[in-house]
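chain and backbone:
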Amino acid sequence: MITADEIINLMGLKPLFPEGGYYVETYRSPIVLDGRQINLEEGDVRELFSAIYYLLAGRRVSRLHRLRSDEIYHLYLGGPLRMLLLYPDGIGEVITLGVDLAIGQRPQVLVPAGVWQGSWLEGGVDFAFMGTTMAPAYNPDDFELAEREKMVYEYPQFEVIINRLT
């Protein structure tokens, strides 16, 4: 079986800071949106969509963050991956990106724009190799890392997981 290190080398992945994990961008649309179409400032632009390969391995986590774009995860190898999603209305859920459909895992998961997200691997899982597609395209100005105290205050029922992901 292939290892996380082999995937990192074969796919040319690099560390994703400050989120965690490894990635490489595989596509960025040449079509550009005017920022006013997507609730940005006049003059801001975003490409229509972008795609990356993403790998999480071992005890590393994807730190709790939110984006101004929809993000769709696609699992390719490994997993399952656990994901915490915290919605603006105070509701949250833990879902599993995986291939065991009979127990409720899904190989594709949508994280809507503005939803806090973080992920981790359960013990015994070596890695999860995924792709993500974002629309509009990823832009570092649209990334926000969570503050632990604020998140625990707003979502106290998820305190243990928030502490792990922040």
